[in-house]
Automatic annotation (TrEMBL):
Enzymatic reactions: tRNA(Gly) + glycine + ATP = glycyl-tRNA(Gly) + AMP + diphosphate
Enzyme Commission number(s) from the entry: 6.1.1.14
Coarse class of the protein's main subcellular location: cytoplasm
Compartments reported by the entry: Cytoplasm
Protein family membership: Belongs to the class-II aminoacyl-tRNA synthetase family.
Domain DALR anticodon binding as annotated: residue spans: 585-683
UniProt gene name: glyS
Protein name as it appears in the record: Glycine--tRNA ligase beta subunit
MF annotations from Gene Ontology: glycine-tRNA ligase activity
InterPro entries referenced in this protein's UniProt entry, alphabetically: DALR_anticod-bd, Gly-tRNA-synth_bsu, Gly-tRNA-synth_heterodimer
Keywords noted in UniProt: Aminoacyl-tRNA synthetase, ATP-binding, Cytoplasm, Ligase, Nucleotide-binding, Protein biosynthesis
The keyword Protein biosynthesis appears for this protein: yes
The protein's assembly and partners: Tetramer of two alpha and two beta subunits.
Pfam families for the chain: DALR_1 (PF05746), tRNA_synt_2f (PF02092)
Length: 693
């Protein structure tokens, strides 16, 4: 008999930030256990439920008894199993006894070849697993494997879980499946909402679980259904006051994990608090109170917010009034921090940064500011930007770290620096660069705008990369405590997406120059270039660029990384040419020949050209060289690669008719020189040998 199975674990309030993950893992573990015991049908469906006080799953088409299975088992080679007179050997009898097989069954054993030896095989019928016998074990194993960082005991129990557990439901259809998990016997009762539910709730059948909990327990058991309901009610309540809620998927998940019966209310705070930067107000409402701030059509904060409560009150003022008092205290703190911070200018805070350790081998944050100021100035000069503005922004970029507001809300670093810089009378370019020097902070984040902001942002990231590589603090495996992968990707995105005409090797050399001599920072640059190249290679592959094309362009990381997209586009057009495959194969052959060459390779001497084919190739190379140089100087990488197509005939004929390793040393050296010049032309944009299959 097949029917829907329900398993529910009733607990005390589970960790909200982990609830969705716990629910999925609980359901997945039970489903996989049922599959392993062959207790589910061909197309089963399972539904996950997770609320603050329960983890549950329903699985359709679960059998009470799995079908019997035929199992074919290898016993042992016939030569070992039988004695000389054909009777069972002691080894065979011992094996049969261990497996519970009667010696009389030997006559029915199958003989088949296993490798080079004839072997006995025994086929037997294995009874299918009974749901009643295995379900508790499946549930216990799923509980054991949940991603719980810390467990606890409760009462005088020896059992352990993330929170105390008070109930277990195991229902197959309407029948209780007996068993015990975490010291609890399975039943068919649970508990609803602490205040709105009927108390103990009897679940008549697995199919009726969600409906029963909602109707009798006032609980929306499904995490996804509850989340969708909250999102809908938030949008509806916001529209009623002509606003929209701040979008925050993580906050929506957390609030969903905090309530079982969500009801949305509109709260309000005094308009005078809007004088505080809205980022501060938004953060304190979201982080401390789990409210949803409201924005007008222009994205400006209004003095209303949304509350997702776990109870439906007869008089809404009881909830909105209490929450208004709570938020007022929080916003008063934010206003106090803001007013206090503005009493001191940013540059007056710099001496305090001498007491903030950046890294024990790299000095204080104030030491770092000196490096950033110099490096940002050099980068701005290379960009023909306002050097003084870049240096000023770099000097003030970290000053807000010692403000009251950032001390309370570290997420606001940079943001508060921009506000305080404006208040101090700093220029708009400087103020914006202070905030934007942290960008991009994560994948898909916006980039700094303008050359001054880009200069400070690059200085911040390159100083970190060079400094930590110089002291041996490199990322290993999945460990990257100083965020160097993020810094490398951020620098690459700034250079490439804003098309900055900067040379990476020069930037790294400038960054290395800012460190004390004992750090030997310049020696770290080769390893750092390799690291940055790997980050770019991974980034391009993730974007869907063919691997061989990425490898061709990044065989040697271009110093001007802003050229990479153009070079990739050129390679993509080149591989579509009918001559591309032959030229790539020829180039691969040339590269291999040159690798084996001994000694330095000189220049072509036309007087030493002997064969017509090598003369023709030399003429083609020499004639094409000026055009190639012109195309490369003008960054016409597509034109440069397409021009190689005209060399195909001469290259093919050369390899058909000319022996490079001639017995005469001078002729051999001259032919190597010809190939070297040809390889230089062919690989000026990308190593096209990497395109050869």
């Amino acid at each position: 008999m097949q029917d829907t199975l329900l398993v529910e674990l009733l607990t005390e309030e589970l960790p909200p930030k982990a609830l969705a993950r716990l629910g999925e893992a609980f359901a997945d573990g039970i489903f996989k256990g049922l599959v392993a015991h062959k207790l589910v049908g061909a197309a089963p469906e399972f539904h996950t439920f997770a609320s603050p006080r329960r983890l549950a799953v329903t699985v359709s088409g679960v059998a009470a008894q799995a079908a019997d299975a035929q199992v074919r088992e290898k016993i042992m080679p016939v030569s070992v199993a039988l004695t000389a007179d054909g009777t069972p050997s002691p080894a065979l009898l011992k094996k049969l006894e261990a497996k519970g097989i009667s010696p009389d069954a030997v006559a029915s054993f199958e003989r088949a070849m296993d490798g080079k030896s004839e072997t006995f095989f025994h086929t037997m019928t294995v009874p299918g697993a009974a749901l009643d016998a295995v379900l508790a074990g499946i549930v216990a194993e799923s509980v054991k494997k949940l991603p719980i960082p810390k467990v606890m005991r409760w009462g005088d129990s020896t059992h352990q879980f993330v929170r105390p557990v008070h109930g277990l439901i195991q229902l197959h259809g309407s029948r209780v499946v007996p068993g015990e998990v975490l010291g609890l016997a399975a039943g068919n009762t649970t508990r609803g909402h602490r205040f709105l539910g009927e108390g103990a709730v009897t679940v008549e059948s697995a199919e009726a679980y969600a409906r029963t909990l909602f109707e009798k327990g006032s609980v929306v058991a499904s995490f996804e259904a509850r989340r969708s309901l909250i999102a809908h009610e938030l949008a509806k309540a916001a529209a009623q006051v002509g606003a929209h809620p701040v979008e925050d998927a993580a906050l929506l998940d957390e609030v969903t994990a905090l309530v079982e019966h969500p009801t949305v209310y509109v709260g309000e705070f005094e308009a005078e608090f809007l004088a505080v930067p809205q980022e501060c107000l938004i953060l304190t409402m979201k982080q401390n109170q789990k409210y949803f701030p409201l924005l007008d059509a222009a994205g400006k904060l209004i003095n209303k917010f949304l509350i997702v409560a776990n109870i439906k009150a007869d008089i809404a003022d009881n909830i909105t009034g209490g929450n208004a008092r709570v938020v007022r205290a929080r916003l008063s703190d934010a206003k106090f921090f803001f007013d206090t911070d503005r009493k001191a200018k940013l540059d007056s805070r710099l001496p305090r940064l001498a007491n903030v350790v950046y890294h024990n081998k790299l000095g204080s944050v104030l030491d770092r500011i000196g490096r950033l100021e110099a490096l940002a100035g050099k980068i701005a000069a290379r960009l023909h930007a306002d050097v003084a503005a870049a240096q000023r922004a770099a000097r003030l970029a970290k000053a807000d770290l010692v403000t009251e507001m950032v001390g309370e809300f570290p997420e606001l670093q940079g943001i508060m620096g921009e506000y305080y810089a404006r208040h101090d009378g700093e220029g708009e370019v400087v103020a914006k660069a202070i905030e934007q020097h942290y960008h991009p902070r994560f994948a898909g984040d916006s980039l700094p705008q303008g050359n001054v902001a880009c200069a400070v942002a690059l200085a911040d990231k390159l100083d970190a990369l060079v400094g930590f590589y110089a002291i041996g603090e490199k990322p290993t495996g999945d460990k990257d405590p100083f965020g160097l992968r993020r810094a490398a990707l951020g620098a690459l995105r700034i250079l490439i997406e804003t098309e900055l005409p900067l040379e990476l090797d020069a930037l790294l050399a400038d960054a290395a120059a800012g460190f004390a001599a004992e750090h030997n920072a310049a020696e770290a640059i080769p390893a750092l270039v390799e690291f940055i190249g790997d980050r770019l290679r991974n980034l391009l592959r993730e974007q869907g660029t063919p691997v061989e094309q990425v490898d061709a362009v990044l065989a040697a990381l271009p110093s001007r990384v802003a050229d990479v997209p153009a070079k990739l586009a050129a390679v993509a057009e080149f591989v579509a040419l009918p001559e591309a495959a032959a030229l790539a194969a020829a180039n691969k052959r040339i590269v291999n020949i040159l690798k084996k060459a001994e000694g330095a390779i000189g220049e072509i001497d036309v007087a030493l050209l002997v064969e017509p084919a090598e003369k023709a190739l030399a003429h083609a190379v020499i004639e094409a060289a000026p055009l190639q140089r012109s195309l490369l100087e003008n960054a016409d990488y597509t034109g440069s690669l397409k021009a190689l197509a005209g060399l195909r005939g001469a290259v093919d004929t050369f390899f058909e008719e000319v022996m490079v390793n001639h017995d005469e040393p001078l002729i051999r050296a001259n032919r190597l020189a010809l190939l070297k010049q040809l390889a230089g032309m062919m690989n000026a944009v990308a190593d096209i040998s990497r395109l050869s299959v």
